[in-house]
Specification:
Elements lengths: L1 H13 L3 H21 L3 H31 L3 E6 L8 H5 L9 E5 L13 H14 L6 E6 L6 H17 L4 E6 L7 E4 L3 E5 L28 E7 L7
Parallel strand pairs: 2-3, 3-4
Antiparallel strand pairs: 1-7, 2-5, 5-6, 6-7
Pfam family, one: MIT_C
Protein name: MITD1 protein
InterPro entries: MIT_dom, MIT_dom_sf, MIT_domain_contain_protein1, MITD1_C, MITD1_C_sf, MITD1_N
């Protein structure tokens, strides 16, 4: 498993997918260190240690490269989610950027609306996103939401849903600030550690489940996705709304 993980790290490294490569190098090194502990053959141990040393050096170089790009404001990573792809739940997409210092989050998404509008489950999606933030490892205290007002009879249900989420978050010591804009078009999520994620379809990139008791209804990792692009940036200062 360690060799396969490191092999994947090298492939990602060659493809200049440095953030993902770093994660694989770190996982692979940990697995290989476990192999060294379990190996009694001294010659094998020596070879493993040499390889581990090489991988650690490369991982450190990548870490410095990423840090320099972040400091220069040049970091950019793009993820392509294919039509009907699975395995792209919120934890998978956001977890590596939710470090312990994250305490404030900004969400701009024009379609955090009524749960029954055609093919949209955006209020539930936003609730799932908030649940992920509460589970950590970040220590979120404030979430800022900028969205648009639902029209007609959906408006009262939108407000009711958002207020319920707001109250529920309050029980966990988290403040949800809600603002509305009639001209909002951009979809982006920002964390106060400098990471910014832009998703072409916003939080609503999952397909409607086939039924209430179908696989993927509860677990977003198993839910088929709409085709979309995710762009990840790092900025020195996260702007405020």
């Amino acid at each position: 498993a360690g060799a396969e993980t490191v092999k994947r790290a090298v492939e990602l490294d060659v493809a200049s997918r440095f953030q993902e490569s770093l994660v694989c190098y770190q996982e692979g090194i940990d697995l290989l260190l476990q192999v060294v502990k379990a190996t009694k053959d001294e010659a094998k141990k020596h070879r493993y240690r040499q390889k581990i040393s090489e991988y650690m050096t490369r991982a450190e170089d990548i870490k410095k490269h990423i840090e320099k790009e972040k400091q220069d404001g040049k970091y950019h990573k793009q993820i392509r989610i294919e039509e009907n792809a699975t395995g792209f739940g919120y934890e998978k997409l956001f977890h590596e950027y939710l470090t312990e210092i994250v305490s404030e989050v900004w969400v701009e998404d024009p379609y955090i609306r009524h749960v029954h509008q055609a093919s949209r489950y955006s209020l539930y999606n936003f609730l799932r996103f908030c649940e992920m933030l509460i589970k950590g490892p970040c220590k979120v205290k404030t979430i800022h939401l900028l969205t648009s007002c639902d029209e007609g009879c959906g408006r009262s249900q939108q407000m009711s849903g958002l207020e319920e989420i707001q109250q529920s978050l309050r029980n966990y010591g988290v403040t949800l600030n809600i603002e509305f804009s009639s001209s909002i078009h951009d979809r982006e999520i920002r964390f106060n550690n400098g990471w910014m994620i832009k998703i072409g379809r916003g939080l609503d990139y999952f397909k409607k489940p086939q039924g209430r008791f179908s696989i993927g209804y509860c677990d977003f990792d198993l839910r088929p996705c709409h085709e979309t692009t995710v762009d990840v940036f790092h900025t020195k200062h996260t702007k405020k709304m």
